Amino acid sequence: MSSGYYLGFDVGGTKITAVLASREGKIKKRIEAKTRKLKGVTDLINQIHTLGEQFDNFDDIGVIFPAPISSKGISLFAPNLMGWNEVNVKERLERAFQRDVFVDNDATAQAISVKLFDKGRKYGNFIYLVVGTGIGGGIFIDNKIYRGGNGYAGELGHTVILTNGPVCGCGRRGCIESLASGRAMARRATENSKEIRNSPFLSSIPLERLSAEDLFSGREMGDPFCTLLVDESIYYLSVAIANYINEFDPEAIFLGGGLMKNDPSLISELKESVENESGKYSRNVPIIKVADRTVELAPIALSVYESTNHTPD
Ligand SMILES: [Zn+2]
């Protein structure tokens, strides 16, 4: 008999969050643990399964990873997890749990959560972009998540916008992730040691601890170098978003991720920059920040979406 509850795991590079929630997205129980990422696949699968033993009475399980996952449930590679190249994650988890398990890329599942539990309900066609340590995304077309031929679609962070730009984690140059992600912003700052020494705000922060958040704070306080770096990142993001708008004609752009929390005026600045960048194709597409809860509910959204045959209420 159906309980109406779902179990979800968000397996990140630093922590695993397990959540039990109703199909309407009401969270009943939540557990966090540090990811055991250095001992390989079997150990991490065991950790997920052991965490799962603290929950009962649920209909389905969804597990999401910071990795491209094929439609067969195979992880292509996972830069933040040891030994996860070409692993059939779905099969391994189903063996551990002795039942069906839905697996997916974390940003793809977050896009599904925008559709099921956030303002995405109102839109059949939208783009979701998550800007955090890295940049990921998801694409909704005609009320369905677009997965492409093998399940890897939506890698919006690997859109090249500077062909001679910095080398990206994917091996190409000038991807938006290599320019405007949190990690990229911190790197671009630390590469300019002279500007850092001259910056009244940044010179007091140890280089190895400098983060994108510091750049946003510095910009708020009027630091010229921080302002330059943040403004450049907003510009790079707007170039990428203008590309997505031209390619997919979305009704809305949704933004998630840690970096979007820092500055309430960021969304309106970004929108203005996207309009400027769109040229004659400018069409006033709304840019909407997603709720933190939407990101937390991503693995729940995945299992609800997959088990109810893709038809949200
Ligand atoms: Zn890339």
How would you briefly describe this protein structure?
With 313 residues, this protein is α/β, with parallel strands linked by helices.
Q: What order do the helices and strands follow?
A: EEEHEEEHEHEEEHHHHHEHEHH
By DSSP (H or I, 4+ residues per run), the number of helices equals 11
- What is the topology, as strand order, of the major beta sheet? 3-2-1-4-7
Task: Indicate the percent of residues in helices.
Answer: 25-40%
Q: What spatial form do the alpha-carbon principal axes imply?
A: globular
The number of distinct structural domains comes to 2
**Mean pLDDT over the residues:** 93
CATH topology of the largest domain: Nucleotidyltransferase, domain 5
Which class of secondary structure composition applies to the elements? alpha/beta
What does this structure look like?
With 313 residues, the protein is of the alpha/beta class. It folds into 2 domains: 101 residues, ATPase, nucleotide binding domain (Nucleotidyltransferase, domain 5, 2-Layer Sandwich); 172 residues, Nucleotidyltransferase, domain 5 (2-Layer Sandwich). The protein is built from 11 helices and 12 strands. The strands form 3 sheets. The chain has a 5-stranded mixed beta sheet with strand order 3-2-1-4-7, with helices on both faces. Strands 10-9-8-11-12 form a 5-stranded mixed beta sheet, with helices on both faces. A two-stranded antiparallel ribbon has the order 5-6. Helix 3 crosses helix 11. The longest helix has 25 residues. It is globular, with a radius of gyration of 20 Å. It starts with a strand and ends in a 6-residue tail after the last helix. Zinc ion (ZN) binds next to helix 4.
